[in-house]
Amino acid sequence: MNKDIFGNIIPPKKSRSICIGQNSITNGEVIYLPKFFDKNESDEFFVSLRNNILWRQESMKMYGKKVDFPRLTAWYSDSERPYAFSGITLKSNLWNHDIVAIKNKIEPKAGVVFNSVMLNLYRSGNDSISWHSDSEPEFGRNPVIASVNFGETRTFQLRHIQTKEKLEIELTHGSLFIMLGELQHFWQHQVPKTTQIKKERINLTFRVIK
Q: How many domains does the chain have?
């Protein structure tokens, strides 16, 4: 609990919402387009990805115990190069038709040609991803990260590493969210758990691996 010099309690700062379109923020930039894919496209992509992606239940060791990730994952790219993070190594799958179609549509807006994508299946509000940043050396100095979302709306939060400023956004069915500039070196992000969500959400996070 924070207090001022007179001993008065300072109320916690509320998270600030990210607006539609391009937003310049401290140490970075984000673009949010909530209806980048129309409803019919989004519905079709959700069903096809749910059924055809090679979803895996990954796990990691914590305090000597095997702990399952609170979501299903898959890694696809234009090569067989694996991706390692959090002590695990993901085997790459080659692009499928749906991923290529999504990739081709978002690349002009992102301004880069992506060569890999991490897919996450959140089965309910009990699935989540904790605070982290996509700042691994293989992503380059200032990576462009493009997040595409199908299915249930989930809250996406950003937290500045130094100032602790928080931003949040509701990532909706068919939305595109792009993180740019030096953002990954100064901000962390997460999708927190919630008891309010019972349905599934699929997220595709496109990157460029150097």
A: 1
